[in-house]
Design brief:
The structure is a single chain. The chain has helices spanning 13-24, 43-53, 82-105, 109-127; strands spanning 31-35, 65-70, 75-80. It has 131 residues and is an alpha+beta fold. Strands 1-2-3 form a 3-stranded mixed β-sheet, with helices on both faces. Helix 1 (13-24) runs parallel beside helix 4 and helix 3 (82-105) packs antiparallel against helix 4. The longest helix has 24 residues, at 82-105.
Length: 131
């Protein structure tokens, strides 16, 4: 997804780490966030590269989620492994991306990421509760 903004992206790393930890408490799944330093005109392909690099496809239940933000190209993507996608379908990803895009357009990058992490965590906790 692409958005327009005038200020460079600023992300509060500590808040993102905390949001991921909170979201993962109730689930066996993994959530990862990558903020790219380079342009990513094809954000889904870039996200998939990071997904593979981080070994997220090796989760036994195939229940990992990656949120990728590329401020320089003003793009982002949210991808889930096949287990997650089977539970939520395309509508969840479309709605989540649209909601995050509203934050990003307003220059609220940390808040947008926190929103995405929280929503993904709630979905994962519902379908993949912690053991």
């Amino acid at each position: 997804m692409r958005w327009l903004f005038s200020n460079p992206a600023r992300v509060d790393h500590a808040r993102i780490v905390e949001a991921v930890a909170r979201a993962e408490v109730g689930t066996s799944a993994k959530i990862r966030v990558v903020v790219g330093r380079h342009r990513a005109p094809a954000p889904v392909a870039a996200a998939q590269k990071h997904f593979d690099r981080l070994g997220l496809a090796r989760a036994p239940e195939r229940n990992s989620v990656l949120i990728f933000l590329a401020p320089r190209s003003r793009t982002f993507a949210v991808i889930g492994d096949e287990g997650v996608h089977a539970k939520c379908g395309d509508a969840f990803w479309t709605e989540l991306a649209a909601a995050m895009g509203v934050y990003f357009k307003a220059g609220q990058f940390t808040e947008g990421l926190e929103h995405g992490i929280g929503r993904a965590g709630a979905l994962l906790a519902e379908h993949f509760p912690s053991r």
